[in-house]
Amino acid sequence: MVSTHILSAYDEELKYLNRRISEMGGLAEQMCGDAVRALVNSDSALAQKVISDDVILDHAERDIQDKAIVTIAKRQPMAADLREIIGTLRIAADLERVGDLGKNTAKRVLAVQGTGVPRKLARGLEHLSELALVQLKDVLDVFANRSAEKAEIIRQRDEEIDAMYTSLFRELLTYMMEDPRNITTCTHLLFCAKNIERIGDHATNIAETIYYIATGAQPEGERPKDDTSNMLGSAGT
Amino acid sequence: MNMMSEAAVEKALDKKMNDVAYKMIGKDVSVYYGDKRALYDVNLNVRQNTVTALIGPSGCGKSTFLRTMNRMNDTIEGCRVTGKITLDGDDIYDKEIDVVELRARVGMVFQKPNPFPKSIYENIAYGPRIHGLARGKTEMDAIVEASLQRAGLWAEVKDRLHEGGTGLSGGQQQRLCIARAIAVSPEVILMDEPCSALDPIATAKVEELIHELRANYTIVIVTHSMQQAARVSQRTAMFHLGHLVEENDTDKMFTNPDDQRTQDYIMGRFG
């Protein structure tokens, strides 16, 4: 384990930041799971809870920012400490965005409530969100143990989510073409799918930040991408 | 095509690395105080027109190494230096070397400002006079003014040149000492914790001065302040228990050092 600081209050400050990140991570994860559940079950009460939870998450991010800035001013951190505090700020910002994506998904619950979500699409969305939430959960575990190797593995895994998203995209297009009355619902679902896919991207960002904290280097090479939805035209489906 | 240009860049970078001009080179430098060994085979090259910071916990040998660079250790009884230190390729421990002349080329500024108990003018003029650098008063006046200008002190003292140097504030005294070091046209300036007795404002002025002096001089500074080392230097060397454990670009040293001991020291952790 890493040695401790001569100033024990400094250790406390760093521990506090770590704890807050874990809390934010747990909440963001829960919000996103709830949002998708609310969507497929047309549960507007649960959707409302997600929307109000976002306030807590935003507050946590601001708290982390304030505390990190005070610590930088007071301790003038160096090397791994400096990387850790800067990394903490970046991760907090990513988690705050994850919460926003969950909230945006929850807001669409009301819009699709009238028609409901077709069973097949619901399964697709659930599967996509499972993948994204596993990414998020794993990356938060890696944050706790600071393993650059594991961060790198998670970074490589985002491809799966992208592929799943592309296939959902294709499916939604098919539904819309089958019956124009599906367009409103499907467009909302498309945004939801995109939201969930973006959660995976933020998990990847966090993995890269953890890699940087642990090694002081940026991970090498382009991050793997398998989101080809931008290539799809209506004729191609 | 891309590969080629990348290779060309690498090559150019390599060349640049090899083109680094070393003003002073320390090779296998060991220092003993009587039976006690203070430095163990230190290999440290000091780059020209660069500020090199020496850091490390008390007793690590950083001041000892600094003092070997202009043979200040000669005055300490029982002190023995082995290995080789060169200035522009010449061995400074060679018997032929005139130590007084060496110390004119490699000047020093100490922790506590130590102006002579003479006037401001005389503090600066003393060195040039004993080295015979000025012919007549006009030339000496010019040297005094130029030195004080370079040390950023001229505006503050130009109307009181003949008042005592010890009447200045601590920060002004330290800049006076730097002006005194500059007056003999040194090539290298060694600084042993030059700001440890100064307040933050005076420290900032001295640091600004160090930054400006780099254009004309090679500077080696010992400091206990990590932030100061990070602020003023381009290269940083970390000493620990008489060993040089790491020498690196300052930017790298304070964000991602290679050695665990450096890491622990700069982060204020228990090793």
TrEMBL record, chain A:
GO CC term (a single one): cytoplasm
One GO BP annotation of this record: negative regulation of phosphate metabolic process
InterPro entries the record matches: PhoU, PhoU-like_sf, PhoU_dom
Ranges that cross the membrane: none
Any Pfam family hit: PhoU
Gene3D superfamilies linked to this entry: Phosphate transport system protein phou homolog 2, domain 2
Entry keywords, A to Z: Cytoplasm, Phosphate transport, Transport
Keyword Cytoplasm: yes
Entry superkingdom: Bacteria
Span of domain PhoU: 21-109, 125-209
Subcellular location: Cytoplasm
UniProt entry tagged with the keyword Transport: yes
Broad class of where this protein is predominantly found: cytoplasm
Function of the protein: Plays a role in the regulation of phosphate uptake.
Subunit structure, interactors included: Homodimer.
Family the entry assigns: Belongs to the PhoU family.
Protein name (database record): Phosphate-specific transport system accessory protein PhoU
